[in-house]
Hints:
Elements: H1 3-31, H2 35-61
Helix pairs in contact: 1-2
Amino acid sequence: MSTSQLKFYAIIASVLCVAGGLVTILSSQEIIHDDYLWAGIGLYCIGKGIFVGPMLMSQAKS
Length: 62
C-alpha cells in the first residue's frame, strides 16, 4: 500500500469514527432512557477516532 493511500484511509477512518460517535450521542437524546450509556459509547467512538487517525498516519510515515 502506498503512503498516500494510508494517509487517505487514516483521514477516512478518523472522520467516520468521530461522525459515528456524534450520531450516537445526538440520536440517543430522545429515544432511549439510558442516555448515559449511549453517551459513553458515543464518546468512546469519538476518542477512538481521535486515536486511530494519528496512529495510521504514523504508519504511513514509516
